[in-house]
Amino acid sequence: MRYKLNLITLALVSVSGSAMAADFSVNKANTDGVNADKFQCKRCPDTTGYRGSVELGAAYSDSDDIHSANALNSEDGTHGVLNADVQYRGKTGYQAKAQAINLGLANSRAHLEAGKVGSYQAELDYRQLSQYQHDNAKSNLWYADGTLTPSAQVQAQELSLKRKQMGMGLSAGHQWGEQNYQVFARYSQEEKTGYQSASMVTPRPINFGKPFDATTDKLTSGLSISGQNWLTSLNYQYSEYDNQIESLSLPYLADIYAPAPDNSAYQLSLSGQYLFNRTAISTQLATGRMIQDAAVIQTTGNPIQNWDGQVDTTDGKLAITSVLDNRLRLGGSVSYSKRDNKSSVWEFAQLESDGISGAFKQNVLLDTEKLNYKVNVSYRINSDYRLQAGFDREELERSHSAREQTDESTVWTKLDIRSFANSKLKLKASFSQRDGSQYQASGLTSSIENPLLRKFYLADRDRSAFEAKFNHALADWINVSLIGRYAEDDYSDTALGLTSSKDYSYNLNADMQFDKQLSGYAFAGQQWIESKQNGSQSFSTADWSADVDDEFINLGAGMNYTGLMQDKLNLGLDYLFSNSNSDKQVVYTTTQPQGDYYSYNHSVEMYANYLLSDLMAVRLGYRYERYYDTDNAQVDVNAIDGLTTLGKLNHNYNAHQVMLSFSYQLR
């Protein structure tokens, strides 16, 4: 039996990455042979004009710790909020859309687009992202105008990062005969400001708030051409990073700290997809370059003024998927990636732990080359059983590394079962093994590195993993899903370093619809990570070991009740509890606890929606967060002689937020 596939099927069975995404939506279908003049919907509602909703509100937050803004999405005080989702459709094919999500709060975004279906479209985007660490970090250094000024008094400083992103884009398309042409261009800029914890030696170790003030500009453009069974596209990407802070200095010593340097990168890629009967083929070729040529800080023994850094990139991929019949499907891919470092090579004076040795040595250029193979098969035994299996292999080569080549092979299998009444079961098992070339711990790295030490990402490793997903409808009103995962890593050939680790977890979810008005949900999840490592205090064989146990818990429940006050009032409640704990035990002649990290969080949200009319509604919401954490590794500013810290950056607070909003429905 022969089956005729179209471009929509091609999009479903093609094996390709995000860089090869294409538009196979229904509105792109070839309809030249269809006479639509006689089609008319006499009962369809008129969809032209404006549709959507607009919501205006105000939020008041009360907290004595800025860390609460990560959960409440607003700093202390009162803030205006705008939410909107408005669409316009004209009778001539013109369309426009405006969206706003939490505008006025710490994390928000907005999107505008307008255009004509099948012809052109313009877009404008805005986004703000904020991350808060602490508002009471202690510091003896204060940054202003490129200078870190020492202070006799310890001062408080806020550690937070804020990013503002603006973007605009334009796309256009046209169809000539059986071919569809599309072009697009998009420009975006991100501004990143704030302070983050950092450390340096001047001449003793000191922590301080490192300033951020940088912009990143990105430009992407492309051209795509598609036919009935094929598509090809040519894309260009360019990015430029500009750090406004060139270097940091003390009043008595210049250029003591170098932040991230200016850099730029570009990439040109060509991709294509083709459907031949029941076989889909996709390819991609890309070449690029990363350049870093910023001025470097001048120090004794530094022979250069500017770092002539250049890395050339080459990427390629070929993927094939073939549907042999109704039951059997085969697939495979091969990808190649190379990073060729062509930066300048200079001779630098070598620094030893006891001073300058006087010897000179060239900096080495680190190159990487990676090759991946993947094959997979899928067989549908019957309507209740489907079996999948595959083999993946990665070959990675690094120059001037302790281990220049690593090879990792993975075999996996999946089984989907639907033979149980009202149930679905998915099972997956995999086993991977990594080995490689001879390990040279001291020959290519450092003479002060123990030759028995094995870095975990280079060492031989056996990994076993298993996953089970179960979904069951217990009754008409309740549905339950359970996911369990287990993974174990064994570094059997490692004498010093990470020797083993286990990672296992479960997630249980329940969705309930008690009656027409009342619905609810509940979930619970836990994860455990156990790892073991060996070390050597005597620069010889292992003489101490460490066990690290991490545990995470997440619990939550919620309900929603509608139908009160003649179906005008809607009530809701959400509760979340999370807890994390990390414990480390070091055994060196005796067991020595190293202290632990512990945190927990209670979060409650209550809300009420009241319909003033068919078009207008008001909403009153309340949010509460109780947060606590403690880290035994943190100490006061000058608690240790010769070390200046940012103080104890733990959190212990109660935070509240009240939000009142008014919404209007457009029809």
Automatic annotation (TrEMBL):
<dbReference type="InterPro" id="IPR036942">
    <property type="entry name" value="Beta-barrel_TonB_sf"/>
</dbReference>
<keyword id="KW-0472">Membrane</keyword>
<feature type="signal peptide">
    <location>
        <begin position="1"/>
        <end position="21"/>
    </location>
</feature>
<dbReference type="GO" id="GO:0009279">
    <property type="term" value="C:cell outer membrane"/>
</dbReference>
<keyword id="KW-0732">Signal</keyword>
<protein>
    <submittedName>
        <fullName>MtrB/PioB family decaheme-associated outer membrane protein</fullName>
    </submittedName>
</protein>
<keyword id="KW-0998">Cell outer membrane</keyword>
<dbReference type="InterPro" id="IPR020016">
    <property type="entry name" value="Decahaem-assoc_OM_MtrB/PioB"/>
</dbReference>
<dbReference type="Pfam" id="PF11854">
    <property type="entry name" value="MtrB_PioB"/>
</dbReference>
